[in-house]
Write a structure and sequence with these properties.
Largest sheet of chain B: 5 strands, mixed
Protein name (chain A): DUF4198 domain-containing protein
Distance between the termini of chain A: 44 Å
Number of helices of chain A: 2
Signal peptide (chain A): 1-25
CATH class of chain A: Mainly Beta
Radius of gyration of chain B: 17 Å
CATH topology of chain A: Immunoglobulin-like
Keywords (chain A): Signal
Oligomer: heterodimer
Strand content of chain A: over 45%
Order of helices and strands of chain B: HEEEHEEHEEEE
Pfam families (chain A): DUF4198
Organism (chain A): Pseudidiomarina sediminum
């Protein structure tokens, strides 16, 4: 990859990732310092970054601006001490309520790709910009060559629990590719099986492809990825081989997109902590 | 039906008297460790039935810290935390107590209260210890209620954080 290409790519990477993640794009991740906590109003700190080597921040920070944190009762939680460094962003959270918190960055939008009369690649909206659907008709030529219009949704998230786990704020929204944690995401133990379901716009994401990779990748010589495919109900299970922080990535695509799109894509990523049994 | 009820009552009475006859105690031996920085371990004792439902018998943690700050490390007794510790509102009379140092410590009254209140069946007595700047260990003693005195003592040895747990007839 030459430097001329790399620079604009880096500049727009955060936004591009939020929309659609090709199979081998860089991974955007959230890494909580702890996921199971006790005591009165414990604190955690969270790193947010984009890198391929999990969970080593060595590439680009993930902007905190799009990250929302939901308390067990559904209210929004303020990000404390947020800062963006070169390789990672960081923020703290005070877990004042008992129960499960959801830390997420979700987005969806329309995207179009085509070739103009001179054979140059065109895209709408521009890199790093959010689509305004009302502009579609004027921005994208109707007779464009090789026109692809897709609705893509992306979600990156993680979960932490103070005291006993709760599920009220983990219910699916019906938008994009979402995970239903049939096994609670903060009740994961090495050698045990955890069950999940993926939904696309609230319906089972049959055939979605899932990859699960343990952190600490710098200290081993292989990815050791667990690769699974969701069944007809969007369900799949993972047996955690050992304790650690795990990154789960899922992707889904079909042609059931609402007009003017012809393709629907969803990408999902989550960080889970698995404790020693 | 009536005959059945009478039979059940009789069996219940029988089993109660059997448990009452076997008042037990649990000895927990905490090892003396040759380490630079020693903190007494957090220890939890609980009984699980075959459905993994827990009855809590003892929790030793740092209850002396200001503002309940000692609760911060309760989650490090991971299995206990998962088996219901996380849903408890501590402290609990007769269950919670201060941490204890190396040596043999005895638990009896809450243990006998729990054992005598449970129906006949198979259970597992669990003891979990977790030490700051140290390790974590769980020991398990399977047992059947009503408890027959002939099976006592029941004992299992640990490797690091727990030296030994022994269930014996009460002295």
């Amino acid at each position: 990859m030459n430097a001329r290409f790399l620079k604009p790519l880096l500049a727009g990477l955060t936004a591009a990732l939020a929309l659609s993640a090709p199979a081998h794009a860089h991974r955007a991740w959230l890494l909580p310092s702890a996921t199971v906590l006790s005591g009165d109003s414990p604190y955690i700190t969270v790193d947010a970054a984009i890198s391929n080597t999990l969970f080593h921040p060595d590439h680009h920070a993930l902007a905190v601006s799009g990250i929302t944190v939901t308390a067990p009762d559904g209210s929004a939680v303020e990000l404390l001490n947020a800062a963006q460094g070169r390789y990672r962003s960081t923020f703290d959270l005070a877990l004042a309520q008992e129960g499960t918190y959801r830390i997420a960055r979700a987005s969806e939008g329309l995207r179009a790709f085509w070739l103009d009369a001179d054979g140059n690649r065109k895209m709408w909206p521009g890199r790093g910009q959010q689509a305004d659907e009302s502009e579609f008709a004027t921005a994208v030529p109707k007779d464009a060559k090789n026109l692809t219009v897709m609705r893509s949704a992306s979600r990156i998230e993680t979960f932490v629990t103070a005291g006993a786990p709760t599920t009220e704020n983990l219910q699916p929204s019906g938008k994009g590719l979402e995970l239903v944690a049939l096994t609670h995401p903060n009740d994961l133990f090495a050698t045990e099986q955890a069950n999940f379901q993926l939904l696309i716009a609230g319906e089972p994401a049959a055939g979605a492809e899932i990859e699960v990779v343990r952190g600490g990748m710098r200290y081993r010589n292989s990815q050791d990825a667990i690769v699974v495919t969701a069944d007809s109900e969007g369900k799949f299970s993972v047996t955690w081989p050992e304790a650690g922080m795990y990154f789960m990535e899922a992707s889904y695509r079909d042609d059931k997109a609402a007009a003017p799109a012809t393709e629907r894509r969803g990408s999902y990523a989550a960080t889970f902590e698995v404790l020693p049994f | 039906m009536k005959r059945y009820v009478t039979l059940m009552t009789l069996l219940t009475l029988l089993s109660l008297s059997r448990v009452a006859a076997a008042e037990v105690q649990l000895e927990i031996e905490l090892p003396r460790l040759d380490v630079a920085e020693y903190h007494p371990p957090y220890v939890a004792v609980w009984l699980e039935d075959s459905q993994r439902q827990a009855e809590h018998i003892a929790v030793w943690y740092d209850i002396a810290m200001r503002d309940g700050e000692g609760k911060e490390w309760l989650k490090d007794m991971r299995q206990w935390w998962r088996r219901g510790g996380r849903s408890l509102d501590l402290p609990i009379d007769g269950v919670t107590g201060a941490t204890k140092g190396p040596g043999t410590h005895t638990i009896n009254s809450q243990l006998n209260r729990v054992l005598s209140a449970l129906p006949a069946g198979d259970y597992v007595l669990n003891v979990e210890a977790s030490r700051e700047v140290g390790g974590r260990e769980v020991l398990r003693l399977p047992l059947t209620l009503p408890l027959e005195t002939t099976v006592l003592p029941l004992e299992t040895k640990g490797e690091r954080e727990l030296a030994r747990i022994t269930l014996t007839a009460q002295n």
